[in-house]
Design goal:
The protein is mainly alpha-helical and 460 residues long. It is 47% helix and 6% strand.
C-alpha cells in the first residue's frame, strides 16, 4: 500500500516547484533588463556620432568654404584669433610666409599716399607679388606695422616672402644680402642693369635718375666732383666693384648706394694719383674721361700707361700736325652710336632737355658696345653727339664713356709721355690676337705697323 508523504515533505516539494516555475517565467525578463541599458547606450552613442558627422560634413562642405571666402574678401579679419585658428585649420597655406613664385623678376609697384593695408595687399596681389592677401595681412599684423606702410615706388619680386615685402615697404633691412658685380668699362645704363638683376628692392628708375642727374648736395660731398660741369651725370665716377647689399633698408636706397660707390671711388683716388694727374696738366674730370677710353681700349695691363700716354699727348698737343688734336678712339664712336639709337631725341646730360629713352627694364638687353661697321671717320652721329666723333672733332669727348678701374686712372697719372707715342694699332703676334698693340711715334711708323698687323691678323 502506498505511503502518503509527510506534510513537511509535501510543502518542500511544492515550494521547489514554485521556485522552478518562477525562474522559468522570470529568466527572459531578467536578461532583457540587463540588455536594455547597453542597447540604449549604443543607440545614443550612434546617434551622437551620426549627428557630429553630419555637422562636420555640413560645415566642411557648406559653411567652411563660405567662411573662408569671407576671410579672403576681408583679409584684415586675420587679426582676430578665432579667424586665425579657423584659417590655420581649414587652409593653413593661406597664412604661410612663402614667396608667390620662384621666378626672379623685378616688378615696379606704386603705393599711393593714404592707401590702407588692405588696398596695398590688393595691389600686390594684382601684380602677382603675393599669392595670398591673408598671408600679407598676417605679416603686417605680426610685425606690428598696421597702418604704417610707406607710399612710394618700389621694385619688388615675387621671390620675396610676404614678411620681406612688408619690411621693404617700411625700408627695414631684411633677409640675406645680395651680391652686385659692376664690371670695369660699363656705362651707367649697364650699371643700372646690373643692379636690376639683383633681388634688391631699390627702385631702378630712381637709381637711374639720380645717376643721370645727381643732386647738388650729393656732389658737394666729394671734392673730386668739384670740376664736374653743371648738368653732367656720374658717368665714369661709379667705381667697378663687387659689393654686398641688403635687399632693402636705409643702406639700399638709391642715394645710399651711390654714396657708397662714390666714397670708394674717392678712397682709391690716392694722393699719388691726384699728384700724377695734376703733374700732367689735367683736371680730375679730364683724367677720368681719358681713363674711361683707356678702359675700353686696353687689354693687357702693361699697355694701359702707353695707351693713356697716346691719348694725353694727342689731347695736349692740338697743334701737332700728325694728329691735330684728334683722339681717333673707336670706343667714343660706339658710345655715341648706341646713345643716338636709344635716345633719338636727345641726351638730357648733353642737351639739358629730356629725351626719348628706352625704359630702364630694357637696358640689360642692349648691345652697348657694337663692332663698328665702317671706318672711324665715316661713322655718322647725331649733331648733339658730335663730341664723341673723335675722328673728326678734336679734343676730349664731352663726358666719360664708361667706368674705369683704378688701374686705368693710375695709368693716366703715370703715363710715360716722354716716350713720345702718338699712335697704336692692335697686332696679332705669330697670328694670335692676344690683345697687344704696336706703338709708334710717327705717322710713317704707324702706317708700317698697320700693314704689319693686317698681314699678321689675316688668318687670326
Amino acid at each position: 500500500m502506498t505511503r502518503r508523504p509527510a506534510p513537511g515533505d509535501y510543502e518542500e516539494r511544492r515550494n521547489a516547484r514554485i521556485r522552478q516555475l518562477r525562474e522559468q517565467r522570470e529568466g527572459p525578463m531578467r536578461r532583457r533588463r540587463r540588455a536594455q541599458p547597453i542597447l540604449l547606450i549604443l543607440w545614443i552613442g550612434g546617434s551622437i556620432t551620426l549627428l557630429v558627422a553630419a555637422l562636420i560634413f555640413g560645415f566642411n562642405s557648406f559653411f567652411a568654404p563660405r567662411v573662408m571666402a569671407w576671410v579672403e574678401a576681408n583679409p584684415g579679419a586675420i587679426e582676430h584669433g578665432l579667424v586665425q585658428d579657423f584659417v590655420q585649420w581649414y587652409r593653413p597655406e593661406a597664412m604661410a610666409d612663402t614667396p608667390a613664385s620662384d621666378q626672379q623678376q623685378r616688378i615696379t609697384v606704386e603705393i599711393p599716399q593714404g592707401a590702407t593695408d588692405a588696398r596695398i595687399g590688393q595691389l600686390l596681389y594684382d601684380e602677382g607679388l603675393i599669392a595670398s592677401q591673408i598671408a600679407f595681412q598676417y605679416a603686417v599684423i605680426t610685425s606690428e606695422r598696421e597702418g604704417t606702410l610707406a607710399a612710394g615706388t618700389f621694385d619688388l619680386s615675387p621671390t620675396l616672402r610676404p614678411s620681406e615685402i612688408v619690411a621693404a615697404l617700411q625700408g627695414v633691412p631684411f633677409g640675406p644680402t645680395t651680391t652686385v658685380t659692376l664690371r670695369e668699362g660699363l656705362r651707367l645704363e649697364e650699371i643700372v642693369a646690373a643692379f636690376s638683376q639683383s633681388e634688391m628692392t631699390t627702385n631702378m628708375e630712381e637709381l637711374a635718375a639720380m645717376l643721370q642727374a645727381p643732386p647738388a648736395d650729393l656732389l658737394n660731398g666729394f671734392d673730386f666732383l668739384a670740376d664736374l660741369p653743371a648738368g653732367r651725370s656720374l658717368e665714369g665716377y661709379i667705381v667697378p666693384e663687387t659689393l654686398e647689399y641688403q635687399l632693402s633698408g636705409p643702406d639700399s636706397t638709391p642715394r645710399a648706394v651711390i654714396t657708397r660707390l662714390l666714397t670708394l671711388f674717392g678712397d682709391r683716388l690716392t694722393p699719388e694719383i691726384r699728384d700724377g694727374i695734376a703733374a700732367k696738366g689735367l683736371t680730375i674730370d679730364e683724367a677720368v674721361i681719358i681713363a674711361s677710353i683707356v678702359e675700353r681700349e686696353a687689354v693687357l695691363p702693361a699697355e694701359r700707361p702707353l695707351i693713356a700716354a697716346v691719348y694725353i699727348k694727342r689731347f695736349l698737343e692740338p697743334d701737332n700736325p700728325q694728329t691735330v688734336g684728334l683722339l681717333n678712339a673707336d670706343p667714343t664712336l660706339q658710345y655715341g652710336l648706341v646713345t643716338g639709337e636709344v635716345r633719338p631725341i636727345g641726351h638730357p646730360m648733353l642737351t639739358g632737355t629730356p629725351g626719348a629713352f628706352l625704359p630702364v627694364d630694357g637696358w640689360g638687353a642692349v648691345d652697348w658696345w657694337p663692332q663698328l661697321q665702317v671706318a672711324g671717320g665715316d661713322v655718322a652721329l647725331e649733331e648733339y653727339l658730335l663730341g664723341f666723333q673723335t675722328y673728326t672733332q678734336p679734343g676730349l669727348p664731352p663726358m666719360p664713356i664708361a667706368a674705369p678701374r683704378t688701374d686705368s686712372i693710375a695709368a693716366v697719372a703715370n703715363a710715360p709721355l716722354d716716350e713720345g707715342y702718338l699712335f697704336f694699332v692692335a697686332g696679332c703676334p705669330n697670328g694670335v690676337r692676344d690683345g697687344s698693340h704696336y706703338f709708334s711715334r710717327t705717322l710713317a711708323e704707324h702706317s708700317a705697323n698697320v700693314e704689319k698687323a693686317r698681314n699678321e691678323c689675316a688668318g687670326a
